[in-house]
Amino acid sequence: LIVGGFLSSLGLLYYPAVFVLPVIFLVGVVLDGEKKRNWAAAAVALLSFIPAVILFVGIVSSQKDHFINGYIGQKLWGVKEVGWVSVARRSGSYLSRTYMMFFFKGDNSFRVNVSGTSHLDKLGAILMVVGFIRWMIKEKRRRLLLLTMFVLLLPGSYPGIPVVDVPNMARTLAILPFVLGFIGEGMLFIYRSLSKWNKAISFGAVFFIVLAISSFNLDKYFRSYVQALPDANVPFSKVIARYIDSVPASVKVVLTDCCWGEWGHAEPKAIYYQLKNKFGREGIYRDQFIETCEGVEVYQPTVFIFDPRDGDKINEFRRCFSGGRFAV
């Protein structure tokens, strides 16, 4: 109980999507009794939360602006500007999208999903539904506890989140153990049902299911996912970094622009972090761009790295440095 409570409380130190884990754990402890509520166990669970809560309060108090006006604050308090009627309408829409992300249209971001595709393959989705129904039938005394799992989807359905970010797999990360449990229960149900007729057939069916799900997901994340990444997964930051490493340390390297690829890469810091020789390249890390040739003080050999699509800027630098060498 103490270990479980402490581990769930660590959600406060991990990611906003799992801030609700201590609450879910506490509800589970209270509802776990056959006929009476386990208030004593709940009190022990609350005590196990104390170390993480103290650390969490310290984090919030030391970064108040981040939680009030920053990345998190904009989403938490931005809902005030929407209006209560719109909040209710948006909440319903967000909840629907989030609940359906496993079966239909999922996360739009390429970071954790093949953009727009469901988070589960069709077979896994069917097994999840079967498993959920089985748990609801088998665990009658824990039906309410099972339904609390939907609370884990609320961080991804908060009305202050921009509509383009809903659904969001990362913000619903805490639901993953339930999803896997339901799929496993669905497979177990099929195995036990077929075992009544033939053990070999039941084993073969489960083996086929595991093989099919593995095949679907391996294809999705090692073929479809790669092809759907920005600029067909060409690592511009790495390519630029390797070129800069090939330039002598005595040659100055200047970026004229950044973030010109799909989804804003290559970022200067991403280039800098992949450099093998970072000495003298600190300007890249500090986002020091030279946007016009009038701002150039050429007192040493210099390499300019352009957005390859910015023909106007490239031609301007050609005119300013007619003796320079341009390469693609």
Q: Key terms for this structure?
A:
2 strands; mainly alpha; 328 residues; 14 helices; globular; 53% helix; two-stranded parallel ribbon
Structure description:
- It is a single chain.
- With 328 residues, the protein is mainly α.
- Helices cover 53% and strands 2% of the residues.
- The protein has 14 helices and 2 strands; from the N terminus they run αααααααααααβααβα.
- The protein has helices spanning 2-9, 21-30, 39-62, 64-68, 71-77, 84-100, 122-138, 143-147, 176-195, 199-228, 236-246, 268-273, 282-285, 311-320; strands at 252-255, 302-305.
- Strands 1-2 form a two-stranded parallel sheet.
- Helix 2 packs antiparallel against helix 3 (39-62) and helix 7 (122-138) crosses helix 9 (176-195).
- The longest helix has 30 residues, at 199-228.
- The radius of gyration is 27 Å and the shape is globular.
- It starts with a helix and ends in an 8-residue tail after the last helix.
- 18% of the residues are buried.
Brief description of this entry?
The chain has 328 residues and is mostly helical.
Return the structural class. mainly alpha
Number of helices: 14
* Overall pLDDT level: 82
Oligomeric composition of the shown chains: single chain
From N to C, what is the helix and strand string? HHHHHHHHHHHEHHEH
Shape estimate: globular
What is the radius of gyration computed over CA atoms, rounded to a whole number of angstroms?
27 Å
